[in-house]
Design goal:
The chain has about 200 residues and is mainly α. Helices cover about 70% and strands about 10% of the residues. A three-stranded antiparallel β-sheet has the order 1-2-3. The relative contact order is 0.14.
């Protein structure tokens, strides 16, 4: 169990840091090459880059409550390594949690170190798809992470049910085999008794 926890720990830490670094590097490039409100069409007006600053949660939700989301994300990141990590049982759930943590870390870095100030910084958003909310790589990682985590949990439940079913079938087969052996033994005893009687 300890070995498994260490393995998942390395995986979660690596994915978390990779996601956060990619998110911050891309945001830095966007800030260096775009002005707030500037639009860069990628696929017409349906998919484009549009630089905005978000004081709320993922996908521009819950604005004007920056410190609340900063606190929640910091608590979650700590919980990943203190609570969730020892309970991870598959690569699927480990990667899912790591993507969520990496996305949270990427956004919390913005909240801690970007304007207008420490702990209340605004998150850099720049990906615009249709009329959907504007988001960033960290938000995408969180969404994908949730999906992967759910898939992992479902696969684990399915595996547990199959294992339980397999054990039940094995037990039934063993019982049937014992009964067959007992019947065969009984028949031999009866045959021996008949021979002695003759």
């Amino acid at each position: 169990m300890a070995t498994l926890t260490r393995r998942y720990g390395r995986l979660v830490l690596a994915v978390t840091l990779i996601v956060a670094v990619i998110d911050q590097v891309v945001k830095t490039l966007v800030l260096a090459n775009m002005s707030p409100g500037e639009k860069v069409p990628i696929v017409g007006d349906w998919f484009r880059f549009l630089l905005t600053f978000n004081s709320g949660a993922a996908f521009s939700m819950g604005e004007n409550a920056t410190w609340v989301f900063t606190t929640i994300q910091l608590v979650f990141i700590v919980a990943v390594f203190t609570y969730f990590l020892p309970r991870l049982t598959s690569n699927w759930t480990a990667i899912g949690v790591a993507l969520i943590a990496g996305g949270a870390l990427g956004n919390v870095i913005d909240r801690l170190f970007r304007a207008p100030g420490f702990f209340i910084g605004h998150v850099v958003d720049f990906i615009s798809v249709g009329s959907f909310a504007i988001f960033n790589i960290a938000d995408s990682a969180i969404t994908v992470g949730v999906v992967i985590f759910i898939i992992g949990v479902l696969l684990e439940e399915q595996g547990a049910e199959e294992e339980k079913s397999g054990k039940s079938n094995k037990k039934s087969t063993g019982k049937a085999g014992t009964e067959t052996t007992a019947d065969a033994t009984g028949e031999k005893v009866e045959e021996a008794a008949e021979e002695l009687g003759q």
